[in-house]
User: Fold this.
Amino acid sequence: MTSKTILNDSHRALGARMVDFGGWDMPLNYGSQIEEHHQVRRDAGMFDVSHMTVVDLRGERVREFLRRLLANSVDKLKKKGKAIYSCMLDEQGGVVDDLIVYYMDDGWYRLVVNAGTRDKDLAWIGRHAAAFDVDVVERAELAIIAVQGPAARERVLGLVDAADRDVLAGLGRFAAINVRSAHGADLFVARTGYTGEDGFEVVLEQGGAVALWDALLAAGVKPAGLGARDTLRLEAGLALYGQDMDESVTPYEVALGWTVSLDEGRDFIGRERLERQQSDGDARQLIGVVMDEKGVLRHGQRVLSDAGEGEILSGTFSPTLGKAIAFARIPAGDAGQVRVDIRGREVPVRTVKFPFVRDGQAQPGVLD
Amino acid sequence: MSEIPGDLKFLKSHEWARVEGDGRVTVGISDHAQGLLGDLVYVDLPSVGDRVEAGTGAAVVESVKAASDVYSPVTGTVVAVNSDLADKPETINEDAFGEGWIFAVEIEDSEQLNELLDPDDYAALLDDAD
Assistant:
């Protein structure tokens, strides 16, 4: 059965082309995916991401539990409201999901996890939480609207109760705060996102979601669909669960080694495998590639490199760059000259550092 | 939805064919198809002189999200390609039945044209799909 977010009727009223996304009826675009992409890069756009799941973890030993559950260390979270990005691994070091964890208070942490992995995540978290007496509560009654782009924060600030405006304006990156909307709704506002632009992700009770969406529309924030979200996040060098990673890869194999904290004395799930991979040096690598020839790189295309054969993970046409970009996974070693098999033709691509685009600009080396 | 021109014939897979009278058939994708695909960013054209078979892939149109084969409605030899699409693939989004044509084939067997859908049949097919 297909699930709908509280904003489903709003999407349809705006003429959205709806698609099934992991069991959710979601907007792909509202006309032109490319225009929505540029709108976010140049001004401000909003995404209904209510299909993602908020999970609240409560208990005296919740910090101890998260030190075990996550590859990144919640010990880094010193101030209430601060967040970190982390992978949650299985015993073999495979990625069960990637998520953001917020430190709410000593007995309460909040996770935001992917839509398609909801059931699996809840089962996994629940299984391991029992030993720590941690309560796992899915907050299915919450909606999430991501407002992204250079003008995003300013537009949201205008919709917040005047008394809360200054404190929200001062919110640092990767942190969250509770404020009130001008309508009186309670908002959990995080300065996070998935587009490479500045902005907020606003979590609120479903009952207030349509009013906030409409207020954002009136403030000039245009709706953007999953299509634009995908091209924006790939330009920003951000990996997608299910496309770039799953249980068959470790964080090192999806270029997320920076999120792994091999801090002393912390026995997190999957650690042993990661340490072995580090000492053996056999982890496959994720590389960023750009194609200068016309065409589009696609998931599943065969990649040929000096290090051996691999495949395209996320691949798309980049609206900002006007060229095809992709992540590819290849064996360990020097990649050399990389080619991609496109319908039987070996097309050369350039290996580049990612993000491909930052602050709306092509990064050095990406455009040649 | 846009009007479906009355002088075209169609494949179920949303290609259109215009019989030009000199034994040539011009081929494109329907307005409905371009709408489904979304913003087109690349067209992989056949080469003039290629032999194409009815019902098999002759070109590829790529939107941001997906690549789709364009089937030739008839068997024959490619005699022209719309090379303007190399720089402006979005022409198909803007004018699928006109400037957005993709290639032209010199037809071998005009009997094949009888197997294509006429505009009313194609319109009915789209209605059923809704």
Remarks:
- The mean pLDDT of chain A is 97.
